[in-house]
Hints:
The complex is a heterotrimer of chains A (419), B (533) and C (468).
Chain A (H helix, E strand, L loop, with lengths): L20 H4 L2 H20 L5 H32 L6 H12 L1 H7 L1 H9 L12 H4 L4 H10 L2 H32 L2 H29 L12 H26 L9 H32 L2 H9 L3 H21 L3 H4 L2 H27 L6 H28 L11 H6 L4
Chain B lengths: L8 E8 L2 H13 L5 E4 L7 H5 L6 H27 L12 H28 L22 E6 L7 H10 L4 E6 L9 H26 L11 H4 L36 H5 L3 H7 L1 H11 L7 H18 L12 H6 L2 H10 L21 H19 L8 H9 L22 H10 E2 L2 E2 L7 H19 L7 H31 L1 H8 L2 H6 L2 H6 L1
Antiparallel strand pairs in B: 1-3, 1-4, 2-3, 5-6
Helix pairs in contact in B: 3-4, 9-10, 14-17, 16-17, 18-19
Chain C lengths: L28 H13 L4 H27 L14 H12 L1 H12 L9 H22 L26 H34 L3 H10 L7 H34 L11 H27 L8 H32 L2 H12 L3 H13 L7 H4 L2 H28 L14 H24 L5 H18 L2
Amino acid sequence: MSEHSSPAPKSADDPAFTLPASLAALRLPLCGGGLGVMLLGWWLARGVGEYGDNFAMSVYLTAAVYCTTIVLGSLFFVIIQHLVRAGWSIVVRRIAELAMVMIIPMAILFIPVVGSLWMGEGILYKWDNPGYGAEHGIPEEVWTEKLRWLDEGWFAARTVGYFTVWTLLALFFFKNSVRQDQTGDKAITDKMQYWSGPAVMLFAGTTTFAAFDWVMSLAPMWFSTMFGVYLFAGSILGAHCLLAVASFVLQKTGAMRDEVTVEHYHDLGKLIFGFVFFWTYISFSQYLLIWYGNIPEETEWFYVRQLGTWGGVALVLIFLHWMLPFAGTMSRHVRRKPALVCGWAVYLLIMHYVDVYFMIMPAAAEGAAGGANGVIASILCVVGMVSLLTGLALGLARQTKVVAVQDPRLGESIAFENI
Amino acid sequence: MSENNEKKVHGVMAEYTSVDTLLDACRRVRDAGYEKTDAFTPFPVHGIDKALGIKPTILPWIVLGAGLTGTATALVMQVWMNAIDYPYIISGKPFISLPAFMPVAFELTVLFSSFGAFFGMWALNGLPKFSNPVFTDPRFDRVTDDRFFLYIDSKDGQFQRADVEKILGDTDTDYVQTVVDDDSSDKVPKPFFMIWGLVVGLSMVPLLIVLKMRVSHSSQPRFHVFYDMDFSPAKGAQQYSTLFRDGRSMRPDVPGTVARGEMQADLDFMTGIDMDALSMIDQPRAERLVRKFNPLYVADAQAEQEATAEAEPQQAGSGDGDEPGGETTSGDAAADSPATDSDANEKAEAEPSVMDTTPWLGKNPLVLTEEVLENGRKNFGIYCSVCHGMNGYGNGLVNVRAQKILAQTWVPPSSLHQDTLYADKYPDGKLFSTISNGIRKMPGYSGQIKARDRWAIVAYVRALQLSQNASIDQIDEGQRESLLQEQAAVKKTIMEQAEAEAAKAKTKTSESEDDAAPEPEKDSAPAPEKDSA
Amino acid sequence: MSLAIPNGLDNSVEQPGERAPLVLGDTTYHDITEAVCQVAERKPSAGWVFGFLISFALLQWLGICILYLIYTGVGVWGNQSPVFWGWPIVNFVFWVGIGHAGTLISAILFLFRQEWRTSINRAAEAMTIFAVACAGTFPGIHVGRAWLAFWLAPYPSLNLWMWPQFRSPLLWDVFAVSTYGTVSLLFWYMGMVPDLATFRDRSTNKWRRMAYGLLSLGWSGSSRHWMRYEKAYALLAAFAAPLVLSVHTIVSFDFAVSQVPGWHTTIFPPYFVAGAIFSGFAMVLTLMIPARTMLGLEKLITIRHLDNMCKIILATGSIVGLAYGTEFFIAWYGQVQEEKFAFTNRAFGPYWWAYWTMVTCNVISPQLFWFKKLRTTPWIIVLICIFVNIGMWFERFVIVVTSLSRDYLPSAWSYFTPTWVDVSMLIGSFGLFFTLFLLFCRLMPVINMAETKSTLAKQYHMTQHGDH
């Protein structure tokens, strides 16, 4: 720091802070194309066979959960930066803010998931099939009690509740941050910091239960108290990867070239490395406890995921979601090369999809692996949904800045240097 | 400064009072081309590596190497210890349980890496190094407080004392000084050695005591610090106990229970008696036997009525001995077990007595295969041979020992090769029952040997008996030749050995005792063959 | 050269865009040296002597209890079927938990560049080591034949001809706790070397100079040394951070890999870690607040430090609360009879008092830290932190005792009652902890002078270059 004389931040209306036109032009094609591709994927998935409806809904849920986790990770990133009064991250915080507002389109995209409960019996969630308990030899009193939580109306109400909380949180932080772009009022920062404490508590409570509801209940009799943390670990990793990729793309297209420096990539690289480790820690702990305890109620979940193709996917997660990126992002030299950080981030975003796929598909699409068509359909569906959300985020970014230009800590962030 | 001239000059040092003045001086010195320079500061000053041109350290690579060594050590250690050198199954987990090996692998990775970082750093820094020329100047003591020093070493290629003093003097400093050899005494104070010697000496004492005790013998009895740990107060199998009313420390089976795996529907198999036939002759005894092996047996309403009807007189007659299991030594239970009958029979010796009306199974219910015989041989070796001997002549090790010490109460075990015990007079079922329930001094083995294995022993005993009475004609044609040859060879060796023995005995009487010991063993193996010839 | 920051300034208020100072008053580098060194250089105060005598007496009492235990056997404890893991294991987990704050402050806050850690990390690290020493005592004597505890190590034994069982979480614990103790010691010592050099250079007494001279390994403050030193420090921090997580994770495995209802639940690893940090910070605050007053270190350990630590207590306390809730929910949602019973039994069974003490102390009392007034009033902080410590001890008690006393076999159910030896040993372990801590205060630099000076240097730098 000693040799460094911090450059004064550029003025708020500098072109470096607006969305580059080349990206802005992509927003409509991305939205339209994304929607089309997503529907194409869904349509393809329906055609895979006898369980087509179930398979298509599962593919759709996988895409939706994947996108939601990244959006939620971004929301968490923003809240936590305010909570700890972070200085280094101001230059990339707006990207996370833009991503977290995508929780609103996500709420709409979740309508089919909830709607599937009324479209037929057990299309997506098996507990929605009233005969499930009897078919699987679950004692009557256990199943009745279970259905008190896994009830169509109550499930839908909870989903609406989660999205309401997240939307309110996202809008609060987004609106205030954007308002500060104009006014530069320091009191806004104080206000956001003040509310970040309660916000993080609300966030933790809702995401835990959302993970239980949307993903864990796919295997109605299975349970793991850690599951919320497991999904969160992937989510926060995804969010940091998104920041690295988005910053890189924005810089390549001409925005914030002087603001985001190699130091920020270094920090993002460290955090990505850390969260790869955290994800491993959580998923390994969950596996170890269930494997060691060896209680039939619990091992069922991993048992299905160790057979056949799923066993292969499990190995992919071990070697390619943990070992390879762990070794790859360990070195300081890698973290200080923006292109490499961006490369690993893209790679990890793909691996995060494999992780979500591994959580959802074996339980959801029973008896319908789908084969190559199924995989293509899944990929189309998620690529479509991601494009749609990216398009919407670009649309939003066009109306505002890509950096929180008047944040009082912007100067500190620009001048930031790693030790 | 002149008084320092005669001493060796190591370099020149200047003092600064702030980070900024120091950094400024560093840059100037670097730009002037000096390379062997160093700055001394009370805390790490960031940016000074650039200002002085210090290269990055290789420490991370050392740590990476140490860490990988740690992982490898942990994995190899665990796999070798728990899966190769001493494999055992625990909670149904495989020998190589990778998930379970992860925690220790992680810990050792961290431990080794930390050692790498800690010791690597000190080694690279050349510390500990207690004598350093820069310490000579008392003013340097403030380097750990609030002063900053810049130092140019005399080994630098362009070191000229006057130039260096000038360039340092031009910077923002009040104090420039040459660094000279430390001329203070380099002797370590004597008390230090005394204390050190004392500590080392004292710490050796316990070690030496332990070592001495490990290599020396003593006629004194061992000192028991924890008496009740050396001599457990727990009761042995046949000991008396005041805890229970019956005075036994060993507990009988809980009434109405059957040991795991022993609840068998096939009562013939469990008792050695043809139960259908028995129920014709002796209904109450059959009932009791059934109840002994199947406590749930009263389900049949008719049988239940009968049982309650009969229970009264029986219990009046024989106390609580009617309870099944365990209590085979007393009262009615003894009657349950056919041992008493056979005991009586044994005394009568010859023909099947008229008193033994029990319809014993004449034939071993197991399908006799080589595997069954092998199993019988194994179990006979474990349970029977200690008394009855490996060949069944009643000369097992326990008997040998009892004879040697002239045990008063010892009843010699029967030889199994007497014709009263052959299959025609002593049916398989009866032999099975004897193994299960015991006879005379011999305890019942039903608690230790499973029924299937007891039948296997029966089969093996029959084979043993046959081996003592077989003729060469019973052997396959093809095998006779080789057998005869083998017999001849064995005979020859025995003869030779006997002769050598005799010769030895004449010359050396002292050694004969030692050699005699293995002799009977060699004899015992071919013994059956001799008879058959 | 110096900054004019008034002594009484409330530096817990931070204007966005300006960082509040972490060193208060008109402080120079030399002032920091003086402030820290005087603690060890002046004559011990009456308070210190008094505290030391009491702690030392308690330590002796612990020693007597251990001798009595070893001579008589573990029957002197209240451990009885089915609760074979009674107080000793509760105490073990409690102390290991306390031992988490130090390395967390040193390592994780270091990695997150939380500069406020500099003036508290030394004492917190020392507490870590002393707490691990206390923790290690209990499993050591709980093995029964404490003098054979070395059998836990995988050494080629000529008596046993066998190896330890690496598939057992208890052995993982041996490795985790001993690695943690070792690495914490290295980390603590390494951080202390430059400060020991300060002690060396200030000592007037020849023997003192020699002793500190040996301990400081000839440290000269060379920039090359500093550079490698900082690298090594960062690397050790990078290893210590996951190590902190792993230690309490593995302690939680002791419970969670089993099938005992109430123990076998996957949330245990993160929940134990959060609880450990929670209790560790509470213990650090409980000790640091009186210490900063008595040792005169208010300028270095400021209200802002306390405020930040209270926030961490609030955060971890809430995580622990969320975990309690999740456990309860999943016990019901999972619909496994034994699990449901275990949790009902916790809250409404014979140990209801322990459960509700735990909830009150751990979940409710830290919520008071939402109020800034309470976060910045030292005596209230101490009070709440003592409650947190009590609550965290009870948490371990609830987990260990309620689950074991009523497991799958109702005929074996019983009610655990501690004996006087149990209670004495818990109190005695505090004697061990405080004795070591008070000795540390007298003999070692209680605050990391070098790092605090570098924080001060940044503060100078900011005022000179930042805001003018």
